[in-house]
Amino acid sequence: MAATPVWLGNPAVRRYLMFISYDGSRFSEMATGGKGFGVVDMLRQAIADSLFGARPYMHPLRNALRISPSSRTDAGVHALRNALICQVPTEYATLDSSIENKLKHISKWNSAIEEFSPGGMKVLDLNRVAAGFCIRRHVAYRLLSEHVMGSFFKHTARDKRKETYSRSARRNILVCQISRGEPISIPNDIYDYYNITIVARSFVREQIRRMMSCIVFHGYDRLPLETIRWLLKNPISTNFYDLRIRIAPPQGLFLTDVVYPPEMFTNPFPCYRHAWDRPQEVLEEKEDELLLDDDC
């Protein structure tokens, strides 16, 4: 009986899990977009310059360099430790061949970023990952309970019309707690600071900013607790706007960390096929689209 061939990924490239921090106020967006001044845009430029030289767009292997974030934070939202997957040609797959070599590359990228945008972003670490590793599906947190967050989901009519299937608004909230905090950017003793920590495997679009609005509005007696319960029991994406609740600004939000089990780096289970492994003509059609749920 013939054995089923094992998919080993694209042999022409290697992939790395990278961790970065950034000041969201310095960038117009997080993910790659039309403006070309996002977090991913700057990181890709720094890596391309170090690998391919001063004119990376002329290099024949330039298209093999790809970067995709684990969490697409809103414009203006900060990150203390966000994760990205970085794909490089095998000719340059020595980024972490040794501790010294890894630190040399990280230092080189940070120097280039600091020169262009002082204090804007910093590369923290990188680890080589196997072909079947998925930056979104191999996170450490596992499902404990589910909540339908439809009332806190920015899901416009235009987006719904473009979708071939309905997006799920079910998300698992593992931790939601309030603790005493402190100022991060500008020290002062005028205000009382609180950290609101929310841990989950994933969030729907603008979920945290809308949840923060409800917490603040309730603190000012402008939103009854019964209304918040009603929003949770009636998960419809138009409810938030119908109640005229203002969305919280992004400046106070920090993505604190994205956690992965280390064993998934080299031996991911299950293995997932990455969207970049599709045929080139399909990739070009979907270059600016969000990844589907069955992609990584």
UniProtKB/TrEMBL annotation:
Protein name from the UniProt record: tRNA pseudouridine synthase
Q: Which Pfam families match?
A: PseudoU_synth_1
For this protein, the record's InterPro entries field holds: PsdUridine_synth_cat_dom_sf, PsdUridine_synth_TruA, PsdUridine_synth_TruA_a/b_dom, PsdUridine_synth_TruA_C, TruA/RsuA/RluB/E/F_N
Q: Does the keyword tRNA processing apply?
A: yes
Q: Which family does it belong to?
A: Belongs to the tRNA pseudouridine synthase TruA family.
What are the Pseudouridine synthase I TruA alpha/beta domain coordinates in residue numbering? 151-261
Give the main EC class: isomerase
The organism of origin for this protein: Haemonchus placei
Care to name a GO molecular-function term for this sequence? RNA binding
